[in-house]
Design goal:
Layout: H1 3-12, H2 14-34, H3 40-60, H4 65-90, H5 102-105, H6 109-114, H7 125-134, H8 137-147, H9 153-171, H10 180-187, H11 189-198, H12 213-220, E1 238-244, E2 255-256, E3 259-260, H13 263-271, E4 273-279, H14 287-296, H15 306-309, H16 318-324, E5 328-333, H17 342-349, E6 353-355, H18 357-360, E7 365-366, E8 369-370, H19 372-388, E9 393-398, H20 425-449, E10 456-462, H21 474-484, H22 490-493, E11 495-501, E12 509-510, E13 515-516, H23 520-528, E14 549-551, E15 561-563, E16 566-569, E17 578-581, E18 586-588, H24 594-612
Length: 620
């Protein structure tokens, strides 16, 4: 037998062939997720994991051995492809927790497809070839004859033991790493996925009696103020909170080639209270997480969307607080209430009424429901009825038209993009936000015309980021650099605006303090003169507090937080973490302390413990 024949026979052996296939697929995943041009870690991490499975097949699969190899290959392919696509959408490594989200995928299929680079599909090449081979009887028969030959048992056992040892060597030293992306890279993607399944340790919960507002305030550096500024300045007024889809702060007062992108928002910002250093605090549930955080002043859960994990809880909330103070409450959203399990969340939060797709009747639909124009027109009419009742109200209005992937219908274009922005992700985002601002302006006009505006406090914020760094092409990054005058960074990505407007109360003022979505509830309560003394909350009134600490989850590695003028992102822990100036400078060497790092983790643990042990409203 010649060397060529020996080589030909070797690669036909499933153990060798599928090892090569897994290696190539792992290299593709590492290149996309970690940016590795030569991902050697795939060879020393993912291949030993695959060999463990392949050796088990060689040892125990007496029949249908090829079928088992194909099954493992398909499973590995599915995992690696999911890792690639999930990273491009969320910037995190997908785990089994995301299975709860599977039923939402069809609703965001346009967003998923928009992130799919053609070369990602190379990961399925071998499956197509294998499918073809099975229908070529002559080739298939010859291959099956080769497959029938088992690997020597001693060799299989030896490779199995060595591979298991290598897997443990990759996993064990990296178990304590806070940064999930670094952890996945150091362990190997497949090892990391297995580790998350096998290490489902339950968090030790803190006794609710030990979770006090004083303890929370001490961790955050909050001081009790005898006469807080703006307390009761809008007492008795309605509260309207408008949650804008994917609205980031850089859009405020932005002009591109002389064109204002958000003229209506700009006018509001420049004549009222504006908080430029305000940040998102959402997770897997995105928009629905923002609804949860704003209305409860609790942090999102460590895994999964708040609507899935906490929806069954009897939640202390802003709707309930306002009802206790004589307000009627309602929330408006053009999507179906079942999406992201909102119906359950709304019961937990205590909304008296919700208006969903049924109310908006599918009029002028795109993306998830009726357009923002329909949302605002019909909502304005309902708010007028509520206002005319003589009883103040609290309502939340959820905008959705500027949703990822931002490809709004041509009939909704309200601006002409410069040539260099056409056909880009950034260009689509800017045009969709321009339309959302147009519709918002109509809402303002209707509220002013029907008398609701003068009787209300209006709070507007972005629900979450729209332009993830990890989704941008080279051309998109160049456009963002043109807009910022520097490289677009993590602090820019999670920075969202907060504007507060109320006739006779607000004036042109920029508040330089730090805030996050968790602070909306206590800030609104202060303005309306509503006490929160008897309600546990993790946010603070950002009119009156100088210090703030904003733990981040999901879009940034666990252990990340914003404090002072700095964003901190951990490595394995604090010592090898990276600090980023909120002005965009990276690699800052001073700013946050290890004490703040530990305090941020404690705050998350307190919130997780408190909410997890709240009573279930379903059992009442």
């Amino acid at each position: 037998m010649t060397r060529l024949e020996r080589f030909s026979g070797l690669w036909k052996k499933p153990f060798v062939l599928f090892s090569i296939i897994v290696l190539l697929k792992s290299c593709l995943a590492y290149a996309v997720v970690f940016g590795d041009k030569v991902p050697w870690i795939a060879l020393v991490a993912d291949i030993p994991f695959a060999w463990v499975l392949f050796c088990l097949i060689e040892l125990f699969a007496s029949k249908r051995k090829l079928g088992w190899y194909v099954t493992v290959n398909v499973l590995v392919t599915a995992i690696l492809f999911a890792v690639i696509m999930y990273y491009k959408y969320y910037g995190v490594i997908v785990t089994y927790h995301a299975l709860e989200q599977v039923n939402q995928v069809t609703a965001v299929k346009n967003s998923v497809f928009s992130l799919l680079a053609p070369y990602y599909l190379l990961i399925f090449t071998d499956i197509i070839i294998l499918f073809y081979v099975t229908f070529r009887k002559k080739i298939a028969k010859g291959w099956k004859d080769v497959v029938k030959v088992k690997m020597h048992r001693g060799l299989a056992l030896g490779i199995l033991v060595v591979s298991l040892a290598i897997c443990m060597f990759n996993i064990w030293p990296n178990r304590a790493s806070m940064n999930e992306i670094k952890q996945a890279k150091d362990m190997g993607i497949l090892n990391y996925e297995m580790y998350t399944i096998l290490s489902r340790e339950k968090q030790d919960l803190i006794d609710p009696k030990e979770i006090t507002q004083d303890r929370i305030n001490q961790l955050k550096g909050i001081e009790k103020i005898a006469n807080p500024s703006y307390y009761g300045a809008a007492k008795g007024k309605n509260l309207i909170i408008i949650q804008m889809e994917s609205l980031q702060s850089f859009l405020v007062n932005l002009k591109i080639d002389g064109q204002e992108i958000t003229p209506n928002l700009n006018k509001l910002v420049n004549n009222n209270f504006y908080f430029p250093h305000f940040f998102q605090q959402v997770g897997q549930g995105n928009t629905s997480d923002a609804e949860f955080v704003v209305n409860s002043s609790f942090y999102i859960p460590p895994n999964g969307a708040a609507t899935m994990i906490y929806a069954g809880k009897e939640l202390p909330s802003l709707p309930k607080l306002m009802q206790e103070n004589g307000y009627q409450t309602a929330t408006f959203h053009t999507n179906v209430v079942e999406f992201w399990n909102r119906g359950e969340l709304y019961k937990g939060l205590g909304w008296e009424k919700y208006y969903d797709a049924k109310f908006f009747e599918g009029e002028d639909e795109f993306f998830f429901g009726s357009s923002d124009e329909v949302l605002y027109r019909k909502t304005a009419a309902e708010l007028q009825k509520m206002n005319d009742s003589g009883k103040p109200f609290y309502s939340q209005v959820i905008s959705m038209s500027a949703h990822h992937p931002f490809t709004i219908p041509a009939s909704k274009y309200k601006m002409a993009l410069p040539e260099r922005y056409e056909g880009t992700f950034v260009g689509d985002y800017i045009r969709s936000q321009n339309y959302a601002d147009y519709a918002l302006g109509q809402f303002f006009d209707e509220l002013k015309a029907n008398g609701v505006w003068d009787d209300s406090v209006i709070m507007i914020y972005g629900d979450h980021l729209g332009l993830p760094i990890y989704s941008l092409t080279k051309a998109d990054k160049q456009l963002m650099e043109e807009i910022y005058g520097r490289e677009y960074g993590y602090t820019d990505m999670i920075n969202i605006p907060l504007v507060i407007a109320s006739e006779g109360v607000t004036n042109p003022t920029v508040f330089p303090g730090l805030g996050g979505e968790i602070d909306v509830m206590p800030t609104a309560a202060n303005l309306l003169g509503v006490s929160m003394d008897h309600q546990i909350h993790f946010g603070e009134d950002i009119f009156n507090q100088k210090n703030n600490l904003l733990p981040q989850r999901y879009y940034l590695p666990s252990g990340s937080f914003v404090s002072g003028k700095t964003l901190f992102m951990p490595g394995d822990g604090y010592q090898d973490g990276t600090q980023y100036s909120l002005s965009g400078q990276s690699g800052v060497t001073s700013g946050v302390t290890e004490e703040e790092y530990n305090q941020a983790l404690q705050l998350l643990h307190l919130s997780d413990s408190y909410v997890s042990q709240l009573p279930d409203w379903k059992k009442k």
